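Fig. S4 source data, part A: sequence.
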Amino acid sequence: MADQETKRVVAAHALILQPDQRFLVTRRALGDDYKPGEYDLPGGTVKLGEKTKAALQREVREETGLEVAIYQPIHVFDYMSGPHRHQFQITFKCGYKGGDVRLNASDHDDFFWGRPEDLISLPLIAFLNSLLNEVLLADKQNGVGDVPAGADFVTSKPQGR
């Protein structure tokens, strides 16, 4: 029997930062088939032939209704999500540009704007747990969460918790 070829899947996620260093966290819907009730960042799968940043803009808009400025990747998390499926999760630092958070209820049922320490006791999806421990908490003193100078922000819209 021939070996089955491994499928590689790329997903992009947004760490959407406010000027006060809070970022958007969403909770996967309790009725969702994939990781219900776990906290996540907006984002999703990059379609074949799609540019990573274009996919991230699309996913953020679909999942939250927000417009973001995408800066640079800050974390890569990879794992085998099946015997022949290698998943890569790339998290980008982003700035909030505009819009009101409007969740797609079939995917996410809650959100809040928080800081790394707000996530410690929550059930986190695997890549967010890795990001929290390897980057956000570990490098908090080094300004990893800083938004680049001159970033465009509209700060009056998001309310959340």
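Fig. S4 source data, part B ends here. Residues 144-161 have pLDDT under 50 and may be disordered.
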